[in-house]
Amino acid sequence: MARTEQVLVLEPQHELKFRGPFTDVVTATLKLTNPTERNVCFKVKTTAPRRYCVRPNSGIIDAKNSVNVSVMLQPFDYDPNEKSKHKFMVQSMLAPYDMTDMEGVWKEAKPEELMDSKLRCAFEMPLENDKTTELSSLPKSSSASLDDGEGKKIMEECKRLQMEVLRLREENKQIREDDGLRKRKVTSMGAPHSSSSGMATSTMRDEGLGTRVLAFCVLFFVIGVIIGKLAL
User: Fold this and answer.
1) What are phi and psi of 99, to 5 degrees?
2) pTM for the whole structure
3) Most exposed among 3, 53, 54, 194, judged by the fewest C-beta atoms under 10 Å?
4) Which domain holds residue 51?
5) Is residue 62 situated within a structural domain?
6) Cα–Cα distance between 15 and 6 in angstroms, integer?
């Protein structure tokens, strides 16, 4: 006997598209709509269960209602020459009026009561122009809240602080070299002079270290501000 025609409306109908890069989890949304006057049980299955996480992967859609199913593709090494053979199937059936155990209902369901729809998977990498368009089209509430001027100022400040840190490193290196030279001179000139010279060297080294620590703190603070604004 032929299977009953699928009552659920799927969006998209035939293909789930996943857009890279695939170095992180990529999510596609499958919308299931129940246009009938009955509640409908559903299950989402895949030919590659280890590669996807589906939430929810089963449940009940009330009459005249819909459910959004998140299909999360796990990170993998993308090969543009390799076509995806992964497929999904949405299986459904009208929920019995007196249903108490959904798993039991699936086990006892007759083949002619089951409805299914199949979707293939497609992987694609966005072009550079697409990336620029997507970033520019994002609303300010979901993208970085920094305007161009403020962002440039912060980046310039970061570069300046980085140069300052490099300069302090060079100064600290020079101080260590001078310290070694003074120690050699002090050794030849005697103990009394050695004591006072050692104190002067120690003071210069402490000042250089304190300045460097301050520069690092300012740099980390600015980076923290940038990350905090981008997360808004």
Assistant:
1) -70, 130
2) 0.55
3) 3
4) 9-99+109-124
5) yes
6) 16
